[in-house]
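quick one before i forget lol
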Amino acid sequence: MSTHPNPVSDSDEEEGRYKLPSLLALSEIASSLSTGTDVEALLGRYLSTMIRIAGAYAGAVRLVTPDGRHLRLVTSTGMPQDLVARERIVPIDCGVCGQALAARAQQCAHSFAACGTTGTHPFFAECGEMHAVPLRHKGQAIGVFNLFLRKAGALPADVRTLFGTIGEHLGMALDNARLTRENTRIGLVTERQMLANQVHDSLAQTLAYARMRAAAAGSALSSGDTGRVQRYLGELEAAIETAYGEVRGLIEQFREPMDPRGLSAALRDLIERVGERSTLRTEFINRAQDLALTPEQEVQVFHIVQEAMTNAQRHARASEIRLIIDRDGEYARLGIEDDGTGFDAARDGEPGHFGLSIMRERAARLGGELTVRSQSGSGTRIDLRFRIAP
């Protein structure tokens, strides 16, 4: 019995013409959802892809403005410049775009009278059909694609379905980009607050003391007590020298780059520099050579250790400091211990103990826990424990 291959129909060929570019577009969108891609540039690329798949002669992308009252034209292809200028900002309920946003569903138009004054532009004379595809995420319409076709009814149903899927994926990409920007702002605000706390904990207190000594010296000078004047001037000079050292320390701390070789190398260099610049004996013990952290985790851990080292030098009058890195299953563990004067750990949340507060904030950003064990005259042990990101 002979067999014959199934003939390929025109409709199958037409479907194949759409399917491969469609799958490629969806694949690229999905891969871009977790990246820091410039989303407006991304929208421009997918507009070109959608125009090609639809056989359209022009297209545009509009996003809802932050006030929720207008649509902003982000990018366009094939539209004359004077029309682009007139449509840069339009009311959110304008024409077919407004209908698509309100219904959260694709709309198709053959008449453009609802597009306000721009609907009479010569550009629309050759347009047989316009599609408005909303960009949606979590039930909210956040923008719209416009596709302009010369021939009405030329867009197959499966392509319209595909465009709806692309609209949902791009809506997710836009929302992810918004969340990334917000998280970046939060991170910057937090870092600034930490810097402010560190300045208050060191430089501001030293300058306040210097101001008091200067006032005391002025009072002694007025009364003619040269002995007290000399003593207060000596204390003032010492305070200024301390403030200068603290400023240099802060500058060095915030200029300190992460070592491109990773956290272990950065910490080794840090503790070696501490030993070189002070009389401290330092020791670095790494029992977790395979510790693989994200860049964000490495930065937070580095700054926690850096702050602990600074505190040991500035306040504890320690002669020895040890850093230990270990791993406990899916958790990383770091211990920083010194043999300094110690302090009452129960008071570490009080004003003037911002160094520990800063370390706790960084530990919280790691989703971890920071514990402090210390008593006056018996040194300090700081332990950090956090889950390693998969």
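fyi The chain has two domains: 10-181, 257-390.
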